[in-house]
Hints:
Layout: E1 22-31, E2 36-43, E3 57-64, E4 68-75, E5 85-90, H1 96-103, E6 110-117, E7 130-135, H2 140-151, E8 158-164, H3 173-181, E9 186-192, E10 207-208, H4 213-219, E11 226-230, H5 233-245, E12 253-256, E13 271-272, H6 294-303, E14 308-313, E15 318-321, H7 323-329, H8 333-336, H9 350-363, E16 374-379, E17 385-396, E18 402-411, H10 413-434
Parallel strand pairs: 7-8, 7-11, 8-9, 9-10, 11-12
Antiparallel strand pairs: 1-2, 1-6, 2-5, 3-4, 3-6, 13-16, 14-15, 14-18, 16-17, 17-18
Amino acid sequence: MTDTTASTDTLPVPGDLGRAPRPFVIESRHPESETITSFRLRPTDGNPPWPHVAGQHLTLFAEVPGQGLQKRNYTISSAPDGRTYRISVKREAQGTVSRWLHDEARPGAPVSVAPPDGSFVLPADDARPVVMLSAGVGLTPMVAMLEAAAADRRAGDLLFVHGTRDGATHAFGPHVRELAAGHAGIRTTFFYSQPRAADVAGRDFDVAGHVSLDWLAGHTPLDTAEYFVCGPLRFLRSFVPGLVQRGVPPERVHYEFFGDVEDLFGEATSQQSPPASGAVVAARRSQAIGGFERAAIGEALLDSAADAIVASDAEGAIVLWNAGSERIFGFTEDEALGQSLDIIIPEPFRARHWEGYRETVASGQSRYGAGDLLAVPGLHRDGRRISIEFTIVLLKDAAGKVTGMVASVRDVTARFEETKALRKRVAALEEQAASPG
Length: 437
């Protein structure tokens, strides 16, 4: 049984808690399934946690022995209680932080937390029915939103649909059923893809097999509902574009990326490129010799049309736009200066971008300034999506506060299209080889 009762002695909320990471401690841990464990995080600076909206996520910083400081985003899996956050983490065999949390972290372990963020939250009104669709550990934001809906006595209909392998991997099952039993507008449907002999239909699960678009079409109101989707990448690739293809307007399909961030509609990927091999080299002031001057070299790079150099302030407004930026994105300098970076970010990726941007400004840390590349979709002036790779450099004042960022951007659309075509050919050959006869 998971405790979700808000404490009556919540701490008063100060006027401004800031956005820099704060010290927290793991207050308790509780197994939810054989693979998922919940951790309660409590601030240790005498202040309450930042307010959050059910469905949002936080950023956790943990010192992992032998691995140094690690940063991960985790959904807050509980409705606000004014004292703690709950995160529910699946143990991944190759996951540095998830293995540390599951195998080593005990109550009292110190961590740091950056403030909650994210737009994957329930609509403010309940005019439309809501369908929550999740698989695996993707149920964590759904549980938080379900708790909030039940506590607020939300009037609209809400269907909680979840798929997992079997009863051993089913997290929060009794808790979700209890929430639904206490609210006439909440219904649940659980899918087990491989139910065990001990799993009883009608008691532990409702349908043997996988959730499908056909099932959703027959059991949910496609013409009126708001859909919230979260789960592994394959799950998202199936249901996010699938619901749109079935006639659900894109603005009524809400999704949270889980795992590697990729374009769900099969266009440009969004992923971190493998780091270059070799020693880590710290930033330093370079020197020019042989009669060359640093300033002249810098100006040559900035004024080149080869790569885009885009600088933005702490709020994300463009303050420098070179010739390469115009070549790659199509906007002239006059059109771009002073505008938000939104002009070059496809709409589905803006929320994720700004979460990371604000987090980087607050923490003063970025993994993409040491040679690692981030590959993401970009937006051209004419509306085309392009594939870009970039690194960033943080601009800081004398006190070390981030005042802006500079991105060095390269257009890799042609290479991406060639790779995509090659993958299709390989897949076709593999399918042909696997066919009998």
